[in-house]
Structures are given as structure tokens and as C-alpha cells.
Design a protein that fits this description.
- This is Phosphate ABC transporter ATP-binding protein.
- It holds the Pfam family ABC_tran.
- Helix content is about 35%, strand content about 30%.
- It contains 10 helices and 10 strands.
- The strands form 2 sheets. A 6-stranded mixed sheet has the order 6-7-8-3-9-10.
- Helix 5 packs across helix 6 and helix 6 packs parallel to helix 7.
- Bound molecules: adenosine-5'-diphosphate and magnesium ion.
- The site of magnesium ion has 2 residues, from helix 1.
């Protein structure tokens, strides 16, 4: 079981009235309809909500993979558009289901930060150890890894930067249950040992029950409900959340 996280009370991520629209078939579609909320340093938040509710968009505006239309997003108190973009992306790590790897060996993948920024926090050996990848894999082609190993590699690459915030978008969705549990344990350990702030989108309700401290429930581009995990799962306040938990609208 995970220990309750230490909460310093300082803001890691803060959203104020954030909106974002996409053009779809010539019409404008508002995917985020005014998001306001705060994730404190050291928090472990899981974001739940039906497909299309804006979860991925919400994560991707935190490191400017996408740009908000209106409103502000503050990372450690500084608005995303005021950050140097490469500093922002080194601070806010974003990992996806697809766990992209570069051509070459596992070691090449784990030396990328050194190559790009001439600095990295850990050696490839240390990164492998940190994420539970065996040393023997270092000289293998990254393309030959299993899904679970690729996901560990992708997380290890994120950790080679001084990330203090980890954004995870459905990272275990393509994995078998055993690999998914290993990744869960890894994230919990990193959260505790490295004092990382975690914001994790999942569609796996059992996973959210196992690991979340706090749940953000999204529907139609809004955060409908923010609650302590135990409270959310036993007593969701909104009908949409109750429907979601029954499995009606995943
Ligand atoms: P979720 O992660 O909750 O499924 P998303 O944030 O991915 O939701 O997207 C919400 C909606 O926005 C989806 O219905 C999708 O069709 C639309 N959308 C996402 N990205 C784009 C894009 N680049 N261009 C147009 N529409 C998009
Ligand atoms: Mg998504």
C-alpha cells in the first residue's frame, strides 16, 4: 500500500479558466470548457472520464504540446508561455501509451538527454536500475523490447531529465496485467523516492482505486468532480461520475 504523500502545500500545476477549441468539420469544438484547479507539489492525482472528455488535451497543455486558447496554466508558479520551452519540457515529463523509442540500443535511448542537452541526471546504468530494466538489455535494440520494457524505457528517458512533474497518459493501456502492475509499482516508488508530482490519466478504474490519492473526474471538457480517492469511489457526487463508474460511458 502506498503511503499518503507529503504535501508541502506549494502549487506544482495550477489551471485558471483554461479553454481550448479544435476545428472539426468547419465548426469549432470546445474540448476544454474552462478548467480551474490545482495540483500541489507531491500530489498523486488520477484523471478519469469518458473518452473525448479532454483528458489528453489537459495534460498536453501543461508542457505546451498544445497551447491553451484562454486562461493560464502555471507550472511551479510560472505561466507555461513564460517558460523557456526546453526547460519546461525537462521539468514536466509526459509519457504516452505508445512509449516511443528511438532507433538504436537501449543505451542510446538512455543517453538522449546527454546528447540533446549535454547533461543528464543519471547514467544509462542508473536509469536502468531505477526503472527495473535489467543491465543485460542495455546493448539490445530498443525495438526488440516487450511493451512493458518499452514503457519502462520511456519512463527512464523522462527521468534522465530533472523532471519534477510526471504526466502519464494511459501508459498501461496496451500492457498485459502483470506489466501494468509493474509500471504502477514503479510510478508509486518514483513518486515516493523522487518526490515527483504525478498526474495520471487512466481508463482503468481498478488501477485508479489502487494508486490514486486524489481523483479528478472530467466530462465534456470540464472537471466535474475533484475528490479524495476513497470518497470518489464510495460516494461520487455527479450522475455522470456514477454512470462512468458503472461502466456505462467509458
Ligand atoms: P480524452 O483524452 O479524454 O479522450 P482528448 O483530449 O483526446 O480527450 O480529446 C477530446 C476531443 O477533442 C476528442 O473528441 C477529439 O476528437 C478532439 N481532438 C483532440 N485532438 C484534436 C485535434 N488535434 N484536432 C481536432 N480535434 C481534436
Ligand atoms: Mg486521451
Amino acid at each position: 500500500m502506498k503511503e499518503t504523500s507529503m504535501n508541502s502545500g506549494t502549487s506544482a500545476i495550477s489551471f485558471t479558466s483554461v479553454t481550448k477549441s479544435y476545428e472539426q468539420n468547419g465548426a469549432s469544438f470546445e474540448v476544454l470548457q474552462g478548467i480551474t484547479g490545482e495540483v500541489k507539489q507531491g500530489d498523486f492525482v488520477m484523471v478519469l472520464g469518458p473518452s473525448g472528455s479532454g483528458k489528453s488535451t489537459l495534460l498536453s497543455i501543461c508542457n505546451l504540446m498544445k497551447t491553451p486558447d484562454e486562461g493560464e496554466v502555471y507550472i511551479h508558479g510560472k505561466e507555461v508561455r513564460d517558460w523557456n520551452i526546453s526547460e519546461l519540457r525537462r521539468t514536466v515529463g509526459l509519457a504516452f501509451q505508445s512509449a516511443p523509442v528511438i532507433d538504436g540500443t537501449v543505451r542510446d535511448n538512455l543517453s538522449l538527454a546527454e546528447k540533446l542537452h549535454q547533461k543528464q541526471l543519471y547514467t544509462p546504468e542508473e536509469l536502468a536500475r531505477l526503472t527495473g530494466l535489467s543491465d543485460e538489455l542495455l546493448d539490445r535494440s530498443a525495438r526488440d523490447l516487450s511493451g512493458g520494457q518499452r514503457q519502462k524505457l520511456s519512463l527512464a528517458r523522462t527521468l534522465s531529465n530533472p523532471s519534477s512533474i510526471l504526466l502519464l497518459d494511459e501508459i498501461t493501456s496496451a500492457l498485459d496485467p502483470v506489466s501494468a502492475l509493474e509500471i504502477e509499482e514503479l510510478i508509486i516508488r518514483l513518486h515516493q523516492e523522487k518526490k515527483l508530482t504525478v498526474m495520471w490519466v487512466t481508463h482503468n478504474i481498478e488501477q485508479a482505486k489502487r494508486v490514486a490519492d486524489t481523483i479528478w473526474f472530467m466530462a465534456d471538457g470540464r472537471v466535474l468532480e475533484t475528490a479524495e480517492s476513497g470518497v470518489f469511489f464510495t460516494d461520487p457526487k455527479h450522475e455522470a461520475a456514477r454512470e462512468f463508474l458503472k461502466g456505462g460511458t467509458r
